[in-house]
Amino acid sequence: MRINEFLHMNKGDGELSYVQNSFDQNGVWLMNQHLIESTIQYLISKDKGLIKGLNVADLGCGVGHVPLALVSLITEIMQRKFKELRLDSEPSCFLMGVPGSYYDVLFPRNSLHFVHSNFTLHWLSKTPWLLDNQGMSINKGNIHIVETSPKPVVEAYWAQFEPDFSQFLKCRSKEVVTNGFMLLTLTGSPCSTDSLIWTPCVTKILNEALICLISEGLIKEEKLDSFEFPMYLASTKQLEIIVQKEGSFAVEHSETTELDVAPEIEDKLQRPKILTKVFRAYSESILPHHFGEEIITVIYDKFTHYAFQHLVQDKTFEHYAVTVVLEQNCKGVAVFLDFEA
Ligand SMILES: C[S@@+](CC[C@H](N)C(=O)[O-])C[C@H]1O[C@@H](n2cnc3c(N)ncnc32)[C@H](O)[C@@H]1O
Question: Which residues contact 49 (CB under 8 A, 6 or more apart)?
Answer without folding.
Answer: none
